[in-house]
Design goal:
15 helices, globular, alpha/beta
């Protein structure tokens, strides 16, 4: 600590001694720059071990503070400084404010209060917010991620990352263009069992992979909800935003006292069914294990006389199916020497010893994160990439979108994962983009 302070003071003294050789403007400019440098000496250095000053904490704004957003707030409240929340449904925003402020009070942490916004664009203009957590319905993800990046905010965006293939690519472009750190909410990548399962597969512990089975639930269903009287304290037009307009339904946006997850995810206009909601978790693990984080399948076949399930083929010959193989939401990897089943409830090998072996020094080691939320915060500070980047989130979501397009068109599809286009199928290519209600835009 003493050496660090001495270095900064030494630089400042040199500048003072050299002031006769500088113009007034140059001297003031250098002096201010040095003063700024002094202010960014880590406060824990000045305050001793275990001390973290409020100015050192990453400040967060939450966009979408329903049940998922409030759950994420519980994860971040002790890891960062939550200072703002945004929701079009006022009671949910009010509950978020009460809950977060109560959590700070309970932990004895000073708190200046949570500022609330109805319009996410106003939150993004706030200069005191470093990063945002986006937990809105899927149809909002792209615009919010793009605008957050343009406003210099790092991003944690819930899965599935995108609502369509083309907007996913725009999200990646924005994150890269504006140099932001993006973590997608595919938090299974930060769970040891999932990482180890993928490492066993990637390193050939069950031999050459011949087939992967992914169970994650059905595609979206046609919109069939009856219009209800809109509550006075919700801005429904802003809830709909860029999506297809339908009148208010409590199925899409339940009142704050309801503790279940809303069902907007089951409708194409706002989500993409369980194929995307849980597929964003389970297809993600399949992609990771197969080393396809920057790619995807090349052929997608619908259920037909030759295929019992939607069946995918990768360029390396591996086949993957979207099927319920009797173990709930899970992945099964079938190799020439064994099988691995993995879910949140189990991690099993056949033979059993295949998942009990130690990895060798020569094995491929996958990104090790054991805390999805701290991983993002640490990467914000270091500017390194987190375990689930925008590209990874986009590629995983793309598999989900390919699945739904295949279910809808009911015909074999050829996919070019480099060009991100269907080969020889104009109708399928037109489905790569989503609906965008005016006047909303996605400008990167």
């Amino acid at each position: 600590m003493q050496n660090q302070i001495q270095i900064y003071l030494f630089i400042f003294l040199i500048m003072i001694n050299d002031k006769n050789n500088l113009s007034r403007r140059e001297f003031l400019g250098r002096g201010l720059a040095t003063a700024a440098a002094l202010t960014i000496i880590p406060r824990h250095v000045l305050g001793g071990a275990g001390f973290t000053a409020p100015s050192d904490e990453i400040t967060l704004g939450f966009i979408g503070v329903g049940i998922q957003g409030r759950g994420l707030a519980n994860e971040f409240v002790s890891r960062a400084r939550i200072i703002a929340g945004c929701d079009v449904f006022a009671p949910k925003a009010d509950k978020f404010k009460r809950d977060v402020e109560a959590a700070y009070a309970k932990n004895g942490k000073a708190n200046a209060g949570i500022k609330l916004y109805k319009d996410f664009r106003d939150l993004l203009k706030a200069k005191d917010i470093d990063a945002v957590v986006i937990a809105t319905p899927d149809h909002w993800h792209a615009i919010m991620v793009i605008e957050a990046a343009k406003h210099g905010k790092d991003v944690y965006c819930e899965k599935p990352y995108s609502h369509s293939i083309e907007e996913g690519r725009l999200m990646v472009k924005a994150i890269e263009k504006y140099g932001r750190i993006n973590q997608t909410g595919n938090m299974q990548r930060s769970w040891k069992n999932f990482r180890n399962a993928c490492q066993y597969v990637r390193n050939g512990y069950i031999g050459e992979i011949k087939e992967v089975k992914v169970c994650c639930g059905p595609p979206p269903k046609p919109y069939d909800l009856t219009a209800e009287t809109k509550p006075k304290d919700i801005d429904w037009d802003l809830w709909i935003g860029p999506a297809v307009y339908n009148d208010y339904s409590s199925v899409l946006a339940p009142p704050v006292e309801k503790t279940h997850y809303p069902d907007w995810r089951n409708y194409k206009e706002y989500g993409n069914g369980m194929t995307a909601d849980w597929g964003a978790h389970m297809f993600d693990i399949a992609q990771w294990a197969l080393g396809m984080d920057d790619s995807g399948p090349t052929v997608i076949n619908p259920p037909d006389a030759e295929h019992n399930f939607v069946t995918y083929k990768y360029a390396n010959g591996v086949a993957m199916t979207h099927e319920d193989f009797g173990r709930g939401y899970a992945c099964r990897f079938i190799g020439t020497k064994g099988i691995i089943d993995i879910s949140r409830g189990f991690f099993e090998g056949l033979p059993a010893e295949v998942i009990k072996k130690d990895f060798s020094d020569s094995d491929v080691k996958l990104y090790e994160s054991n805390d999805h939320y701290n991983n993002w915060l640490d990467c914000i500070k270091s500017r390194k990439q987190p375990v689930s980047t925008a590209e990874i989130g986009h590629r995983t979501a793309t598999v989900c979108h390919l699945t739904n397009i295949c279910y809808e068109l009911k015909r074999p599809l050829k996919w070019d994962p480099v060009a991100e286009a269907f080969i020889g199928d104009d109708e399928a290519n037109s489905m790569r983009s989503g609906y965008l209600r005016k006047p909303w835009k996605m400008d990167v």
